[in-house]
Amino acid sequence: MVLMASLLWAGQVVTEEQRLWAQNALAQEKTLGVAASSNTVAVLYFHNKTGKARLNPLQKGLAFMLMTDLSRLEQIQLLERVKLQALFEELDLGVSGLVDAETAPRVGKLAGARYLVGGDILASDLADLGIRSDLLDVPDESLLRQPLREGALSELLDLEKQILFEIIALLEVELSAQQKHELEKPLTANIKALFNLFYAIDSTDRGQYYRAQAYYQKALRQDPELRPAQEGLDELQSLNLVGSTNRSKEMLKSLEEKTSQTDSVVDDDTKRRSKDPGDLGLGQIRVNW
């Protein structure tokens, strides 16, 4: 059986409820045991180790994509992103929420997770992008494996799916034909819309709600069927975090007047490949963030 992501939607805004949950977890840290369920999973943000700041959106973006896919499986009990973000903030990890190897087991225990998914975004000599994913067994503090996938930045959607199915295999989850078919569907076919979604989520974490609203709106113009963007926009409005139509329009106009942060992600890569079939190095990719 496949659970639709909308049924599991927990929002992207960290509310007082999630903060209280995180504070309570820290207060009870000394008495916490191993996760009661062996299928509990938390997905950490990825580390950008390429030295390219323009790839920072992938840190939360990759995690969000994997969370969205894993949330469709009833065999997995997935920790909500907002709870994890609240925990990061309580641990003084900052808005980025980047967890190092030493801190990861503690985060897993606090989150009540048996497994932690995370990893690194790497520079590659063979392709534009390398993504290594870690799967940590929290009680044993051991890595089961580190799947590595490489490809062009424009192939991000395919790379995420490859990593997803490796993680599912490592978790020993057996998929039905229907589940596999549903999971193979991309979140969107528009990578520009995808990156604007990533920016919206990060802006929300920073409390920049009107900026998040503008990014959600831009993502929806690029792909009107991108449901997480519509749900994120609806959430901001339902919580009364955005309200002034004029202010929203001004923020959107401000974003539009700047050089697009995502428009050359695919375009430049495609143009270069049409001239040179060889792989490109990260240093050759121009992405105007």
Quick overview of this protein structure:
This protein is of the alpha/beta class. It is built from eleven helices and seven strands.
Architecture blueprint of SSEs:
Elements lengths: L15 H12 L12 E4 L3 E2 L8 H14 L6 E2 L2 H10 L13 H8 L3 E8 L6 E9 L4 E2 L4 E4 L4 H15 L6 H8 L6 H15 L3 H14 L4 H12 L6 H13 L6 H12 L14
Parallel strand pairs: 1-3, 1-4, 2-4
Antiparallel strand pairs: 4-5, 5-6, 5-7
Helix pairs in contact: 1-3, 2-5, 2-7, 7-8, 8-9, 8-10
Question: Explain this structure to me?
Answer:
There is one protein chain. The chain is an alpha/beta fold. It has two domains: 5-184, TolB, N-terminal domain (Rossmann fold, 3-Layer(aba) Sandwich), CATH 3.40.50.10070; 191-284, no CATH class. 46% of the residues lie in helices and 11% in strands. The chain contains eleven helices and seven strands. The chain has helices at 16-27, 57-70, 81-90, 104-111, 156-170, 177-184, 191-205, 209-222, 227-238, 245-257, 264-275, and strands at residues 40-43, 47-48, 77-78, 115-122, 129-137, 142-143, 148-151. Strands 1, 2, 3, 4, 5, 6 and 7 form a seven-stranded mixed sheet that branches. The longest helix has 15 residues, at 156-170. The radius of gyration is 19 Å and the shape is globular. The model is unreliable at 1-8 and 268-289 (pLDDT under 50).
